[in-house]
Amino acid sequence: MLETTLLGIQQLAHFDIWIVLVAGSLLGIILGAIPGIGPGVGIALLLPVTYAMEPLQGITLLMGLYAAGWYGGAIPAITINTPGTGVNVLTTYDGFPMTKAGEPQRALSLAYASSFFGGIFAVVVLMVAAWPLAALSKYLTSVDLGMAALLAMVLVVVAHRGAELASFAMLGVGLFVSTIGLETAYGSARYTFDTTWMMAGVPLISMILGLFALSQAFSLLFSDRKIDTTETEIDRQLLSGFIEICRYPKVLFRSAGFGVGMGVLPGVGEFLAQFFAYTTARNGSKTPDKFGKGAPEGIIASETANNAVPPAALVPLLSLGIPGEAFTAMMLTVFIVHGVDPGPTLFADHKEFVAGLYVSLFVMNFIIVGILLVGTRWIAKLATINDKLLAVIIMCLVMVGTFSRNYRLSDTIIAIFFGLVGFALRRANIPLVPMILGLVLGPIMERYFRQGIGAAGGDLTIFVTRPVSLVFLIVIILLIAHSIRRAIARIAGRI
Length: 495
Known about the structure:
By secondary structure, this protein is mainly alpha-helical. The protein has 21 helices and two strands.
C-alpha cells in the first residue's frame, strides 16, 4: 500500500489535478446546497467535458461532484429544513431542530465532521479491498463476469422495494435501448428503421442528460417550493464537531460500515445505508426519545453513512468493471471513451491512474471540508435561488452539451425526448436509475455472454458447470424468489 500511496502522490504533482480537485469539490458543494439540483445533474452536465480530459482528471472531477454534493446537501437541510439532495432527508430530522434551538453551527459542524470521517473511512476500504478483488477477478471467465453483470441488474431491481415491477420494466427499457444500432459481432443493424443517424445507437450522453438533467429542469419549472429567506446566523466556528463526534465512536464506525457495505452492493446506495445507520443509532442510543428533536447521533449516523458510499461504489467498478448505480455508470463511460478497461487489467496496466485516484479521493475530503469551513455563510444563500431560473440554466446547458458533442441536432432531440420521459417517470414516482444501468450494463452482459457461449461451443450448461457462475445464478434465483414472496405478502396484506 505504501508503494501505491507514493505513486499516487506523484500524480498529484501535476497542477491540473489540483484544478479539477478544487473545481469538482466546489461545484459539488454548490449543486448539493441548491435544493432540487444535486450532484446527479452536475455529473450529467459535465460528462461531455470530461471526455476531453485525461481519465484521472475526468474521474476526479466527477468524484468531486459526487462526494461533495452530499456534504453541501446538509447545509439547507440543517438551516432551512429543506434537504439539498434526496440523501440528506434524514439530516433534517435532527439538524433543523438543532438550528431552531439556536445551534446551527453545532449541527453543521457535526455534519461536516461526520461526512469527513465517512469519506476517509471509505477511501481506506477502497485502497484495501479493490486491489485484492481485482487480483481475484483474474480467475473469472467471461461466463462469470456476464453472470455478475446480470446479478448487478437483479440487485438494482430488488433494491427498489415496493417498486420492483416498475424497476424491472425500466431496466428492460434500458436493455432494449442498448441494442439499438449496429451489432458489433456481425455488423447487422438492430432497430434502426433504415435511418443512418440511428446506426451508432442512442448516445449515452443524450440519454443521461435527458433523464437526469432535463427532467429535473422540467420538475423545477413546475415546482411550488416556498423559499425561506430568513437569515440563519452562521459564523466560522465550525471545528467543534470534529471533537464532538469522537464521543460517539460506535455510531461513527457502525454508520461508516453501513455506508461501505451498501456502497459496494449494486443498486443499493446511500438511501438504504442512511436508513440502516439512523435506525440502528436510534435503537442503540441511551436517549432514543431525543432523535428527531436534535440528537447529535442522528446527524452523525446520517451524514457518515451517505458520505461513505461514493468511494465504496468504486470498488466493483474498478475491480470488476461493473457499475453498481447511475453515477458510477456515468463514470464508466469516461473509461470507455479513453480506451481504458476497468477490471483486473486496470491495476496491471494503469497503476498510476489507480494510485492517483486513491490519493485524490483522500485529499478531496480535506479540500471539501476546507471550502465549507470558510464559505458556509455564503454557500447557504444558494438555497434561496429561484427554481425557475435554475431550470432555464439547466436546459440551456443541456442543449449546448448534447449538440456540441457530435454537432448533431438529432442528439439534442433525443435528449429532449428522454427529458420528457424522465419528467413523466418522476411525476409517477417510477425509478430512473434502472434504465441507465440497463443501457450501460446491457452491452457488457451481452459481450461476456457471447464470449462465454462461443468458447463453450454453444453449450448453455457452462453457466451451471462453472462454480462461480453457479453461485451467482443461485443468488439471483434466491433474490428473485424473495422479492416475489415479499410482493405476494404485500398484496395479501391489502386484501
